[in-house]
C-alpha cells in the first residue's frame, strides 16, 4: 500500500496518526512518538513517515532542483564542482565552474553566462523555492548548451537550460590539487588549474549523460570520494581547509510551475466558489480547537486585546534555527546595501515597530521556553504606495522540515465575505469607507509565546554592527493564525461594548469589515456622521484606530477631523472634485459615486503564460464584466486543451482573437456602474424585487441579478447587482445541461444575495428561456435538478430591458454621443480653454458639467439645468425627439422643439424635428400625403392620326347607353381603376367641367326632352369649337384648330346667331331660351377651361415608385381618415414609361385595385 493510501485509510477510519488507534487524535495521544527516524519531529507512526507532504502527488510535480547546504568551518565540503568549457549554438564559448548536483532535476545557469555567450534564448517563468524561502517567481531564459571538460573532447548536450539572476554557489567549494595531495587514493588525480572564480552552471539529473560515473574512488569513513564522468573528476565530501568561512551556501531546493497552476485556479474561481458558503457553515475540529484556545487566552491590557498563539501541540519543541535566520539576514544585508532608499525605508519601519512597542530587544537570550524560533524577514513594496515598505516575516520558512506556520492552527475563517461587504456598500445613498491602522499589530501576543517570534536586526539599521535579537509582541503579517486571531479580537470588541452604542454600530463592526477595511452605506448624512463618530469610539475601546475616512458627501467629510481622513481628501477645497479610490480592490469614483474599472495592460509575450497573466490581472469580484473576461478565459481554455507549452508561441488563429480582445479591453475604462442601487433623490422605497436571469451556450453558462426598486412616486429603477459566468467544460456537454448549470448558478447567486443583502425583498423571480430547464426542475427522480430552482419561462423572442423604452438616455450614453461628435471641444473644455471659433457649438456658450457639454444661457444659474448639446444626426438624438413628439401628442414641429429644449439643445433642431415627424407612422396615418408620380404621357388613342373620329370614345356621367341601329355592336371596353378618374385624361376633365356647368345653368330649370336634346346639341357644337392649339397673336397665322374642324371638315359650323337677352329665359320662346343658355355655356367655357390648357399644374417630376410589400393606407371617402384600412401592396402595374400608377392592395378584407393617388405610404418594404 502506498503512503497516500495509508493516509487515506487512517483518515477514513479516524485513527490517531501516532498509535493508529481510534477515539482520539495525535495531538491528544498519550503514547510516545512512534516515529524512530532521526531528525523527525512529527508525531506520527513510522508507517506514515515521508520526507514529502502526505497526499502530495509526485507524478504531477514539475521539474524541481534539490540541493544541500554546507556550513563552513575548519572543514571544507567539496560539492562536486568541476571546471568546464560551455559552448552555445552560435559557436561562442567560455570557461566556468559547473556543479554536478545529483539532487537537482533541472539544469540551471547564471544569466551572466548567457551574456558572455551572446546567444539567442526564449523567455520562461517558474517558481523557485529554497531551504529558507517558500518560493519566488523567476523570470528567466531557456537555452540549449554544449559542455565538455576543459582538457577533454567529449561534448555533453544540455537541453532546455533555465537561467537565474545568480547562482548562490561559492567557487570555494571546488576541490583543488593541493586539497587532495594528502589523500593517497586521490593523489594521482589531476584537476585542471584555472583562474575561475564563479560557478555559473548547475547540471541536474535532467542531463544524465553528464552524471554517468566512469570511475569511482573512495577512502575510509567520512573521507571524500571522487567520481570520474565525461566532464572529468568531481571531488565530493569534507576536506580540511584552514581558510573556510562561516557563510552558509543554500542551494536551490525546488523550481516548478506551481505559480501558474495557482493563477489558473484563481482565474476559474475568481467570481466565487460554489461550495465555499456551504463549507463555511460548520467548523472543523481544528477550528473548534483554535476557537477554544482564543476564548480561553484572551485578555485586555493597556487597552489592547492579548491572545496566545494557537499551537497545534503546546508540548512541541522547536529546533534552533538561528543558522537559517542568520543566512537570510545576510541576503537581506546584500539587498539593502545595494539600495540605499530601500535601506532607509526598511530601517524606519523596523525602528517604528520598536518605538511603538510592537517589537522589543531580547536581553535574556537563553529562554526556558521550548518554542524559540527565529523569523527571517524581507521587504515588500507596493507600486501603488510609493515611499512605503512593509516588513514581512517569513513564517513559512522551513528548517529541518518545520516552519512556524506548520506548528500553528489556522483558526476559523471569521472574515466577512468580500462580495457581501461590497454588496452592502451599495445599498444606500451615503457611503463611508475607512481603514484600521496596522490592525494585526494592535492585537498583542502572550509573553510566553513571544520567543517564537524572534528575529535578527542591526541596531538603528547599521549594517556594520553585529545584529541583535529582537522579538515581536504582536501578531504578525505572514503568520497563518493572524487573520483569525485579529478578526476574533475585532468582533470581541463589538460584543464587549455593544451596550454602550446603538445596535447599528455593533452590526457594522460585525458585518461591514473585511480584514481591516470598513465599507458602509446609510440613508442620510446625519446617520453617516453619527455612525462614523460612534465607530471610532467603539473601535478605540478595543485598541484599534479607525482612520483614512472617505465619503461621497462633503458634509460627512467636513465632520471628520482632517487627521483621520484619507490622504486624498485631507486638504479638499469646496470646489475640488472628490477623488477616485480603491474600495476592497474595486475602483470607486467618489465624485460621481460610481464603480469603474482600471485596465493596466503590461507588455506580455503572446504565450499561454503571458495571456494568463493579463486575464488574471482584471479584478472583478461582483462579475460585472464577466461577459468580457469570459472570452479571454475561453482562449486560455483552448490553449490548455490543445496542450500548448507555457512559453510556446500561440498559433495565428488564437493570436488574432487575443489581439482583438486586448484592443477592445481599454474600453472597460469607459464603463461604470452606479455604486448605489437606489436613485439619488429617492426618499422612500415602496417595493423591492430581485430578478435573476440565467442562460447557457456552447461557450459557457452564467447568471446575473438585477434589483428592481419602486419608490413612493412609482418610479422604477433597475440596477445590476452581480453576475457570474463560467466556461463550458472541456468535455462536451449538451446545451440543455449547460442551461441547467446556469439555472443552478442563478440559485446560488440568490443564496449569496439573500444572505448578504440587508434590504427587504418583496419578490424574487428567476428567468430562463429554456423549457427543457423547466422540465428538469419538475423532475422528481434526479436530485441534481430537484428543489433547486423556482422561476419563470421567458420566450427567446421576448426581449427585456429595451433601451428605447427608457424615459431618458443616461448620462453615459449622452457623453458617448458627444465624444463621437465634439471630442475636440471636450478636450479644450477639460483644459479650461474655450472652444474654437469655428466650432459648431461656439455660439452656444458651452460648459463642461460632469463630463457633459451643456449650453449656458443667460437665464441658467444652475449649470446642471442647462440643456445638453447634441448633434442633429445621431440615433440617440432621433430617439429623444421621437420621445418628446409622442409624449406631446404628435403635435407640430415648433411645440416638439420647445419641449425638447428644456433638457437638450439639438443642433439644427428645426430640421431634425421635421425629419422625425415626417417619418412618424401615426402622423402619416392622420396627415400623410398620398402617393404621386409624374404625369403620364398621352395615351396612344389620343395620338392616332389615321383613325376616323369616334374610333376611341371616353364616356362618363351619362352612359353608356346601348342603342340598336340594325347593325352589330363593335365596341371594346377598357376600364380604368376605381377612383382613378384622372386616368381618363382630357375627356374626364371636359366632362367634369361640362357637368359642373350643367348643374349651374339648369339647376332650377325644368326642360323637356326636346329642349334638353337641343341644348345638348348646341353645347356639343360649342365644346367641339374649342381651340386645341395655342392661339396666336399674329394675324397672318392660320386659324386655330378645333375638334369640329376635324369632325366636319370646315372651319365655321355655327348658324347665324340671333340677338338674345336675359329676359328671354322667362319667355315662352323656347328656341331663344336654348340659344341664351348655349351662349352662357360658351362664355364660361372660355373663362374657366381654356386657360388651363396652357400649363401642367401638378405631377411635374418623377417620384419613388411604390413597391410590393409597401405598407399603405387606402383612402376611402365614405369613412373618416382614422378608419381607413391598412393594406400591403401585392401587385403593381407599370405604365409604358416604366412608372407605377396603379396597384393591387391586400387589406384585411379583400384585394382591391387602386391608383397610387388614393394610397398613403406608411412603411417602405426596404
UniProtKB/TrEMBL annotation:
GO MF, one example: nucleic acid binding
Stored Pfam families: DUF5641 (PF18701), Integrase_H2C2 (PF17921), Peptidase_A17 (PF05380)
Superkingdom classification of source: Eukaryota
An annotated GO BP: DNA metabolic process
Domain spans labelled DUF5641: 1070-1162
Limits of the Integrase zinc-binding domain: 875-926
Protein name: DUF5641 domain-containing protein
Organism: Mytilus galloprovincialis (Mediterranean mussel)
Amino acid at each position: 500500500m502506498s503512503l497516500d493510501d495509508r493516509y487515506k485509510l487512517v483518515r477514513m477510519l479516524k485513527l490517531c496518526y501516532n498509535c493508529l488507534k481510534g477515539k482520539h487524535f495525535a495531538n491528544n495521544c498519550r503514547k510516545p512518538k512512534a516515529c524512530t527516524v532521526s531528525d523527525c519531529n512529527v508525531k506520527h507512526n513510522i508507517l506514515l513517515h515521508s520526507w514529502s507532504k502526505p497526499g502530495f502527488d509526485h507524478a504531477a510535480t514539475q521539474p524541481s532542483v534539490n540541493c544541500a547546504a554546507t556550513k563552513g568551518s575548519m572543514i571544507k565540503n567539496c560539492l562536486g564542482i568541476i571546471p568546464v568549457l560551455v559552448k552555445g549554438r552560435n559557436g561562442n564559448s567560455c570557461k566556468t565552474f559547473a556543479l554536478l548536483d545529483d539532487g537537482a532535476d533541472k539544469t540551471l545557469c547564471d544569466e551572466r553566462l548567457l551574456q558572455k555567450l551572446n546567444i539567442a534564448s526564449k523567455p520562461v517563468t517558474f517558481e523557485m523555492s529554497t531551504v529558507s524561502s517558500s518560493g519566488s517567481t523567476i523570470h528567466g531564459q531557456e537555452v540549449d548548451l554544449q559542455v565538455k571538460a576543459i582538457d577533454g573532447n567529449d561534448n555533453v548536450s544540455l537541453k532546455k537550460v533555465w537561467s537565474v539572476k545568480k547562482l548562490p554557489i561559492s567557487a570555494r567549494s571546488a576541490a583543488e590539487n593541493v586539497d587532495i595531495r594528502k589523500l593517497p587514493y586521490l593523489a594521482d588525480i589531476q584537476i585542471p588549474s584555472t583562474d575561475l572564480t564563479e560557478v555559473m552552471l548547475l547540471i541536474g539529473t535532467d542531463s544524465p549523460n553528464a552524471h554517468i560515473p566512469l570511475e569511482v574512488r573512495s577512502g575510509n569513513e567520512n573521507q571524500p570520494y571522487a567520481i570520474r564522468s565525461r566532464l572529468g573528476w568531481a571531488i565530493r565530501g569534507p576536506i580540511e581547509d584552514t581558510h573556510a568561512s562561516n557563510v552558509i551556501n543554500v542551494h536551490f531546493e525546488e523550481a516548478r510551475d506551481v505559480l501558474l497552476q495557482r493563477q489558473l485556479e484563481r482565474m476559474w474561481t475568481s467570481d466565487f466558489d460554489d461550495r465555499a458558503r456551504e463549507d463555511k457553515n460548520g467548523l472543523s475540529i481544528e477550528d473548534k480547537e483554535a476557537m477554544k484556545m482564543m476564548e480561553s487566552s484572551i485578555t485586555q491590557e493597556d487597552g489592547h486585546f492579548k491572545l496566545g498563539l494557537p499551537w497545534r501541540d503546546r508540548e512541541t519543541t522547536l529546533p534552533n534555527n538561528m543558522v537559517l535566520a542568520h543566512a537570510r539576514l545576510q541576503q537581506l544585508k546584500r539587498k539593502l546595501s545595494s539600495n540605499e532608499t530601500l535601506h532607509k525605508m526598511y530601517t524606519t519601519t523596523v525602528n517604528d515597530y520598536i518605538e511603538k512597542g510592537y517589537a522589543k530587544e531580547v536581553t535574556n537570550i537563553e529562554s526556558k521556553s521550548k518554542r524559540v524560533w527565529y523569523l527571517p524577514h524581507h521587504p515588500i513594496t507596493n507600486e501603488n504606495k510609493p515611499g512605503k515598505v512593509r516588513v514581512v516575516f517569513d513564517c513559512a520558512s522551513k528548517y529541518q522540515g518545520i516552519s512556524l506556520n506548520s506548528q500553528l492552527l489556522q483558526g476559523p475563517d471569521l472574515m466577512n465575505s468580500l462580495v457581501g461587504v461590497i454588496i452592502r456598500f451599495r445599498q444606500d445613498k451615503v457611503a463611508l469607507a475607512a481603514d484600521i491602522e496596522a490592525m494585526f499589530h494592535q492585537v498583542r501576543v502572550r509573553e510566553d509565546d513571544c520567543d517564537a517570534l524572534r528575529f535578527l536586526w542591526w541596531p538603528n539599521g547599521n549594517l556594520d554592527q553585529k545584529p541583535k535579537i529582537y522579538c515581536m509582541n504582536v501578531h504578525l503579517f505572514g503568520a497563518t493564525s493572524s487573520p483569525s486571531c485579529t478578526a476574533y479580537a475585532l468582533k470581541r470588541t463589538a460584543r464587549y461594548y455593544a451596550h454602550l452604542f446603538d445596535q447599528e454600530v455593533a452590526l457594522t463592526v460585525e458585518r461591514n469589515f473585511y480584514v481591516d477595511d470598513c465599507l458602509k452605506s446609510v440613508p442620510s448624512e446625519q446617520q453617516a456622521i453619527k455612525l462614523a463618530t460612534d465607530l471610532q469610539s467603539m473601535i478605540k475601546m478595543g485598541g484599534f484606530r479607525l482612520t483614512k475616512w472617505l465619503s461621497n458627501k462633503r458634509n460627512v467629510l467636513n465632520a471628520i477631523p482632517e487627521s483621520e481622513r484619507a490622504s486624498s481628501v485631507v486638504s479638499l477645497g469646496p470646489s475640488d472634485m472628490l477623488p477616485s479610490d480603491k474600495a476592497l480592490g474595486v475602483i470607486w469614483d467618489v465624485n460621481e459615486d460610481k464603480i469603474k474599472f482600471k485596465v493596466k495592460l503590461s507588455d506580455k509575450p503572446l504565450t499561454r503564460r503571458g495571456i494568463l497573466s493579463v486575464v488574471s490581472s482584471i479584478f472583478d469580484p461582483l462579475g460585472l464584466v464577466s461577459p468580457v473576461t469570459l472570452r479571454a478565459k475561453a482562449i486560455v481554455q483552448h490553449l490548455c486543451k490543445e496542450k500548448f507549452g507555457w512559453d510556446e508561441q500561440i498559433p495565428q488563429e488564437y493570436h488574432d482573437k487575443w489581439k482583438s480582445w486586448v484592443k477592445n479591453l481599454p474600453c472597460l475604462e469607459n464603463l461604470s456602474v452606479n455604486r448605489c442601487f437606489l436613485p439619488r433623490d429617492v426618499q422612500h422605497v415602496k417595493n423591492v424585487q430581485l430578478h435573476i436571469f440565467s442562460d447557457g451556450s456552447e461557450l459557457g453558462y452564467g447568471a446575473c441579478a438585477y434589483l428592481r426598486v419602486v419608490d413612493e412616486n412609482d418610479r422604477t429603477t433597475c440596477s445590476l447587482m452581480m453576475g457570474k459566468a463560467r466556461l463550458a467544460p472541456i468535455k462536451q456537454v449538451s446545451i440543455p445541461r449547460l442551461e441547467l448549470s446556469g439555472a443552478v448558478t442563478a440559485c446560488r447567486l440568490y443564496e449569496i444575495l439573500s444572505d448578504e443583502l440587508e434590504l427587504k425583498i418583496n419578490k424574487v423571480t428567476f428567468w430562463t428561456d429554456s423549457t427543457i430547464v423547466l422540465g428538469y426542475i419538475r423532475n422528481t427522480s434526479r436530485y441534481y435538478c430537484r428543489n433547486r430552482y423556482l422561476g419563470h419561462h421567458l420566450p427567446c423572442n421576448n426581449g427585456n430591458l429595451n433601451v428605447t423604452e427608457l424615459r431618458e438616455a443616461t448620462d453615459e450614453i449622452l457623453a458617448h454621443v458627444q465624444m463621437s461628435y465634439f471630442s475636440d471641444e471636450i478636450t479644450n473644455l477639460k483644459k479650461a480653454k474655450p472652444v474654437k471659433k469655428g466650432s459648431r457649438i461656439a455660439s452656444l456658450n458651452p460648459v463642461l458639467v460632469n463630463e457633459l457639454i451643456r449650453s449656458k444661457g443667460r437665464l441658467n444659474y444652475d449649470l446642471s439645468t442647462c440643456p445638453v448639446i447634441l448633434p442633429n444626426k445621431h440615433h440617440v438624438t432621433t430617439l429623444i425627439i421621437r420621445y418628446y413628439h409622442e409624449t406631446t401628442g404628435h403635435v407640430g414641429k415648433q411645440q416638439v422643439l420647445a419641449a425638447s429644449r428644456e433638457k437638450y439643445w439639438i443642433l439644427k433642431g428645426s430640421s431634425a424635428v421635421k425629419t422625425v415627424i415626417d417619418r412618424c407612422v401615426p402622423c402619416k396615418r392622420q396627415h400623410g400625403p398620398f402617393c404621386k408620380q409624374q404625369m403620364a404621357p398621352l395615351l396612344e388613342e389620343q395620338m392616332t392620326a389615321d383613325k376616323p373620329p369616334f374610333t376611341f370614345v371616353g364616356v362618363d356621367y351619362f352612359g353608356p347607353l346601348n342603342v340598336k341601329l340594325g347593325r352589330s355592336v363593335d365596341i371594346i371596353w377598357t376600364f380604368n381603376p376605381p377612383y382613378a378618374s384622372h386616368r381618363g385624361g382630357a375627356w374626364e376633365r371636359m366632362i367634369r367641367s361640362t357637368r359642373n356647368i350643367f348643374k349651374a345653368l339648369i339647376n332650377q330649370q325644368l326642360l323637356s326632352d326636346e329642349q334638353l336634346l337641343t341644348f345638348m346639341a348646341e353645347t356639343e357644337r360649342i365644346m367641339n369649337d374649342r381651340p386645341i392649339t395655342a392661339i396666336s397673336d399674329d394675324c397672318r397665322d392660320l386659324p386655330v384648330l378645333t375638334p369640329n374642324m376635324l369632325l366636319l371638315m370646315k372651319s365655321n359650323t355655327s348658324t347665324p346667331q340671333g340677338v338674345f337677352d336675359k329676359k328671354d329665359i322667362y319667355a315662352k320662346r323656347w328656341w331663344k331660351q336654348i340659344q341664351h343658355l348655349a351662349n352662357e355655356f360658351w362664355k364660361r367655357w372660355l373663362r374657366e377651361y381654356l386657360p388651363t390648357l396652357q400649363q401642367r399644374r401638378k405631377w411635374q417630376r418623377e417620384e419613388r415608385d411604390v413597391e410590393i410589400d409597401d405598407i399603405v393606407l387606402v383612402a376611402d371617402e365614405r369613412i373618416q381618415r382614422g378608419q381607413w384600412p391598412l393594406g400591403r401592396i401585392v401587385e403593381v402595374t407599370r405604365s409604358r414609361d416604366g412608372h407605377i400608377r396603379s396597384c393591387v392592395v391586400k387589406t384585411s378584407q379583400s384585394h382591391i385595385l387602386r391608383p397610387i393617388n388614393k394610397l398613403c405610404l406608411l412603411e417602405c418594404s426596404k
